[in-house]
Each structure stands twice: as C-alpha cells, then as structure tokens.
Specification:
Alkaline Phosphatase, subunit A, single chain, globular, 463 residues, 16% strand, 24% helix, alpha/beta, 4-stranded antiparallel beta sheet, 8-stranded mixed beta sheet
C-alpha cells in the first residue's frame, strides 16, 4: 500500500439500487457508476442500519451505529423531528478528525442541506467545507406563494418540469437557473473538482462529496428527461407538488414522475464520471481509494407509497448502492454478498491506511470478508426508521412497529419484491426476527411521542 494513499467518499442521496446498471437495471443510463463498479468490489447486500438522511451520515462519519436511536433529543432550528436525526455525538470521533490528525488534508463538498442546519456539526474535522445551498426545503430564499404548479415558476426552458414536495421552497431556490451548470450535481462535483486541482499536490487528502440528488424534487434537464419520456406528447402536469404516503396521480403522471427520477440518476452519474476522470487525469487513480454509496433508495408507488415513509421499509427504500475501489485492483469486478452498512466504511478505510481506530467502534473492516481472511459474516441485518423496525436474513424480511404488533413478513425466495405478507402464517419467524431487533438494540427499543403536523410522514403511521 503506497504511503501517499488518498480517500474519496461519494454519497448520493436516495439513489435506488435497482436503478443502476451494475445492479441489473437495463433502461437507465449509468455508465460512469457502472464503470467504477467494474474496477471495484460491488456489495450486493448493503442496507442502512438507521434511516433516513442524518442517521445514515452519523454512521458513515463515525463507524458507530445510530440504531436504535436511544437518547434522542429534538434539535432547535430543524423541523425534522425523527429519532436519530441528531448531530454527531461529542463522544464520537469522525473519520475526518482521525485522518486530519494523521496529516491528511480534509475537505467536504455537499448539497445535503440537512447537514448544515442549525445545531448540526457534520463538518467536524474538515479543513474546509463548502455548502451548496438551495436543495429541497433549504431556507435559502423566501418561498413562493400562490399556485405552485404554475409553469411560470420553472426557472428556465431547460427545466421542463419538477416533481416533489415542498416545491414552494425549492422552486424559489431555483430562481435564476439558466443552464446545466446551475443544477446541483454540476455545482457540488464541480466544486470538488476545483478543490482537487488546487490541493492534490499538497499531500494526502480525504475528499467527501455528498450530493443530495437524486433526492426529490426531481427536475432533470430536458435533454436527459427526453431519454426516458415522450415530453412532446405529454399532456399531464409538468409541475407536481406531491406529498408522502399514498398518492393519486392523474393519467400519465406516474410514468412522467419515474422518468424524472431516472433523469436525475443519469444526471448524477454524469458528474460522478467528471470527478473520476479528473482523478485519473491528475495521476491519482493508482493511489486513491474510492467509496461510492447511497444512503437509501426511494419509493415511487411500488407499494402504493410515494416518497419515504417509516412503515415502507421495502427493497425500493432499503437496498443500497455500495462499492469500494482499491487501487491494487486485486478484487476488481468482484461481487460480495456479505451484509454491510455505512458504519463499516470508516473501519475499512482505516484498515487500508494502516491506522487503528482511536476508540472502539461498531463497524467492521468489510475487506476481510472480501479477501476471505475472516468467515464471521453477519447472519442478518437490523434497521430502524422512526417508529418502525426492520430485519432481514437470507430467507425473510420483517417489518413491524416498535412493539412488534403491526408486523409484516416476506419470503425472499418466493417473493423478493415483498408483496405477500405471511406474518400470520409464520408467527415463529416473526418472533425470531423481532428478538434479533431487541438483541441488537440492547434489550429494548426507545419510544418517543412525536407529532409534527407539517411532516406527517415522519410519524409512526400504521399500515
């Protein structure tokens, strides 16, 4: 291992595993991510250990599980009130802090606005950090009033339409856009490329690129949207101000919405490629570790639900994109089916670099499972989102409320899409899965009384 090894971590928010070519998708164009996968180890059983956005990033940056969200305290300055949605605990040490102590230059470019809300601290340990403003409901500009779905709210001709919730904020934030360089992936990855060009000769570096797209709102540039949808003959709404949960689309609008998401996936892929090409051009490919992952997926009516809901812990939400490129390329193109999650990234990177964690951590060096050095793979995974928990192993996927009363069970061999609930037929399996959840939680799950009128989808809804 070269002693000048660098690290790049790419986090893509809401990127669905089944929408990427290297995981089997055959209609969405993701050539850049697919190309990286050919040189990487591709993990096929990667899942978030706690959802959504902020709990995932806590685990990634610290190597510590956020599950089961014990000791949650809602934070001032943040309207998202969901267990686990908290700053990195003061007692946890971040990857950036560790590598900075080891002499690395550390930088983060992110458009994931939740990370820089009041009371958050996800830039700890970075020598420099850049917030790309304006995503979703970022309080960047005064929100729009009146008819949000009026086409005059679109910023330019390149923006054919927009689908998502809180559009009164994000459409206001998009005012002034003129060409693709104004779209968030161009700004986030473009800034990271500029930083790399300015600093790569200064020594070893950690560069984290955390892009909020393809998270909603979906507003793919029209030439990319046209790859997936016949805009010339579409007569439905072009701006659709959605809500989370069951949603009633008009004729043609669901297909249009899915095309908008597909377009965002291709747009993000394009700028991942721009960054990785620049890494190669600067002569860094042979001494740079690259980790690319998503924090979770995104439901688009597969189970009658639009957007992320805590009770909708199905593959479209739970399955992750997760790959690790190692410069020696000994295992390039390999698929690994070990159960892995975001808290495994920190210990794996430290092991590559020959650095011992300064404090005990929960994550595992997943490369030992890749090489076969260790055989003690996890037998199952557990996760939590709000008032709902999840467990899966080789045979079954289990979803329930915190009490284990409202439960669903799916046979993964017979029903991989998880549509046929067999919980009543197999109470023994439900009990086994729930006991695993309690065991991982230290014996009990915490309960919180939360009711946020403007964010109903974060409540412990029962379905």
């Amino acid at each position: 291992m070269p002693d000048d090894m660098n690290v790049i971590i790419i986090m893509l928010d809401s990127l669905r595993k089944d929408h990427v070519g290297c995981y089997g998708n055959d209609w969405i164009k993701t050539p850049e991510i697919d190309g990286l996968a050919k040189e990487s180890v591709l993990f096929t059983r990667a899942f978030p250990e706690a959802l959504p956005t902020i709990p995932v990033r806590r685990a990634l940056h610290t190597g510590m599980r956020t599950f089961p969200n014990k000791g949650y305290t809602p934070r001032k300055g943040d309207n998202v009130k969901i267990p686990g949605w908290e700053p990195i605990p003061e007692s946890h040490i971040t990857l950036a802090e560790i590598l900075r102590r080891e002499g690395y230059i550390t930088a983060m470019y992110t458009s994931t606005y939740h990370m820089f809300k009041p009371s958050m601290n996800f830039h700890r340990g970075f020598d420099c950090w850049i917030w790309i403003r304006g995503q979703e409901a970022d309080r960047y500009r005064v929100p729009l009033e009146g008819d949000i779905e009026d086409l005059r709210n679109l910023p330019c001709e390149l923006a054919y339409g927009c689908v998502g919730h809180t559009l009164h904020y994000c459409l206001a934030n998009m005012r002034g856009w003129r060409d693709e360089s104004d779209w968030f992936p161009a700004r986030t990855f473009g800034g990271a490329i500029d930083w790399l060009e300015e600093n790569y000769k200064r020594g070893r570096f950690l560069l984290v690129v955390d892009e909020f797209d393809p998270h909603e709102p979906w507003i793919a540039p029209k030439p990319i949207l046209d790859l997936y949808f016949d805009t010339a003959n579409y007569t439905g709404r072009r701006i659709i101000n959605t809500r989370t949960g069951p949603y009633e689309f008009r004729e043609g609008e669901l297909e249009y919405t899915r095309a908008q998401y597909a377009g965002e996936v291709t747009l993000v892929d394009k700028y991942v490629g721009k960054l990785l090409r620049r890494v190669r051009e600067l002569g860094l490919w042979d001494n740079t570790i690259v980790v690319l992952t998503s924090d979770h997926g995104h439901p688009i009516m597969e189970h009658g639900i639009l957007h992320k809901a805590p009770y909708c812990l199905y593959p479209e939400l739970m399955d992750l994109v997760f790959m690790v490129y190692h410069p020696d390329r000994e295992y390039a193109g390999m698929e690994c089916d070990a159960y892995v999650s975001h808290h495994d990234i920190l210990p794996t990177i430290l092991a590559f670099l020959g650095i011992s964690p300064p404090t005990p951590i929960d994550g595992r060096n997943l490369w030992e499972w890749v090489t076969g050095e260790r055989k003690d793979r996890r037998e199952y995974m557990t996760s939590i989102f709000g008032g709902w928990v999840w467990c899966r192993d080789e045979d079954y996927a289990y979803i329930s409320d915190l009490d284990g009363e409202h439960r669903r069970l799916y046979d993964l061999h017979e029903d991989p899409g998880q549509y046929n609930n067999i919980a009543e037929e197999r109470p023994d399996i439900c009990e086994r899965m729930y006991k695993r959840i309690l065991r991982d939680a230290g014996g009990s799950l915490p309960r919180y009384q939360l009711d946020i009128p403007e964010l109903r989808w974060y409540n412990a809804l029962r379905s």
